[in-house]
Every structure is written in C-alpha cells, then in structure tokens.
Amino acid sequence: MSESVHGREVVALLAAQPAGMNESVLLTLVEQTFPVGLFHTCKVKGMDKNQILANMMTKGRIVEQDGILTAQTSCGCKHK
Known about the structure:
The protein is an alpha+beta fold. It has one domain (5-69). It contains three helices and four strands. It has helices spanning 7-15, 23-33, 49-58, and strands at residues 5-6, 39-40, 62-65, 68-71. The strands form two sheets. Strands 1-2 form a two-stranded parallel sheet. Strands 3-4 form a two-stranded antiparallel ribbon. Strand 3 (62-65) and strand 4 (68-71) form a beta hairpin. Helix 1 (7-15) packs across helix 3. It is globular and about 30 Å long. The two termini are 23 Å apart.
C-alpha cells in the first residue's frame, strides 16, 4: 500500500523557508523530505513532485516572483 502526502505539506515545507527558494532547490527538498514521492490534494490524487508543485502554483498556494518561490499559507481546503 503506497502512502501519499497532501499538497499542504509541500506548502508548509516552503513556508518554513522565509526567504523562499528557487524551484530546483524546492523540488530537491521535497524529494528528500517526502521520499514516498506521491502527492494529493483534496480533489486530485496520484501526483508526482512536479505535478503537485504545478497544482499548488495554479491554486496560488505557491507563488513565483523573480525566480523565487514563496508560500501563501492560507488554505482553502477543509482539513483537520
């Protein structure tokens, strides 16, 4: 049985870096922190690290400015 990490965990990981980071550094950190490599949101399951990053950026949870990604920590999903 494979495990999956919610996208909010990726946002929280980035939020812990107040200065933000570039995409490649974030993806490496995600891979090191969540070696299972499978991610989901409340609506979409079975994403890899690139797909969850794209999803979080599309939703405005992660934003890019001048090549640096930062987290927007307000969450629209209903989680515990």
